[in-house]
Amino acid sequence: MTEAATRSNAGRGSLAGWYTPPLMNQVTFEDQQFQLTEYESVLDCLLRHGQAIPYACRAGLCQACLVKTVNSQASAESQRWIKPELRALGYTLACQWVPDADVSVALPDLNDFSTTARIRERTLLAPQVLCLRLEIPDPGTMFACRPGQYLNLINPQGVSRPYSIANDYEHDGYIELHIAATTHGVLSHWLFETATCGSVVHLRGPAGECYYREQELNATPLLLAGTGTGLAPLFGILQDALRKGHQARIDLFHGAQDAGQLYLHTALQELAQAHPNLHYHPCVRKGVCPPGVQCESIEKALTASLDAKTLSPAAAFLCGAPDFVHSMRKTLYLKGLRAQRIYSDPFTERQVVTTQSGGKT
Fold this sequence. Notes:
By secondary structure, the protein is an alpha/beta fold. Helix content is 24%, strand content 25%. It folds into 3 domains: 19-110, Ubiquitin-like (UB roll), CATH 3.10.20; 114-207, Beta Barrel (Elongation Factor Tu (Ef-tu), domain 3), CATH 2.40.30; 214-344, 3-Layer(aba) Sandwich (Rossmann fold). The strands form 3 sheets. A 6-stranded antiparallel β-sheet has the order 9-8-11-6-7-10. The longest helix is centred in the middle third of the chain and has 13 residues, at 231-243.
């Protein structure tokens, strides 16, 4: 007798007895099986069960949640943005994979796709902002990247997080990242409290559309706007544009809660003095405003200074807090800037509640 028939006979005489609940698919990970709910991604399932798996944006952008399939076939959608050579090795994005059968996955093998790097310098740019410079012991293994793009940094414990590139690796010979100290950031806590010069990490990348395109943008006015460490990619883009002789006007807006968080403030002032086409607009929401700093939110400062005439020929780069990036994209579009000329790599995150105590959301 089939399982369905057994259930039916056992419940004869009641409506419940005639209903056969659908069997849920399972994810096998680290020799354990976890039941998926309907329309649930592999990443959400593993996080809900308190499993330690790297992730960041949960939207398929950062690729921090890369996993390797084990005797399973990933969906085409979950492999859509992965490089062909990684797809051939069975890699997929856990956040984009909603299985229609039982599947098995494993954490990625760093030897398949990462570059080994070593921490060369650690410097505080502000009390809560760490400048990290990474050298590549074997330059031949380093991937091509542009200032403003982002990469995934992986520590020895396998914790991964995307960070934007603040400089030109080909010009400087090292990678520079700006790390914000966050209350619940496992990787940022490791970088601030445990990592030392000489610590070995792994890099994977690059990704992202935020970078200077010399042929396309050399004569185009540039609007660079960011909050917090969203300045990192903008600083990289700015230096790249200036180094390549950008001729048109450049406006850089940096927003912070108070003046103490305006890191690189002096360096940007000096760049503006050296380049007449660069206009630097630091903005703070509260506290004392030093000379030259606007005492208002970056959103208000941007909205007040822009109009359709100045925006229509421009290109904009937006970085930082997701709410800021999304709202300013809409504002700039409504004010006349073409959507194709608005570059940003925002990260969004959904919360997953764990089914085990002590699990991570």
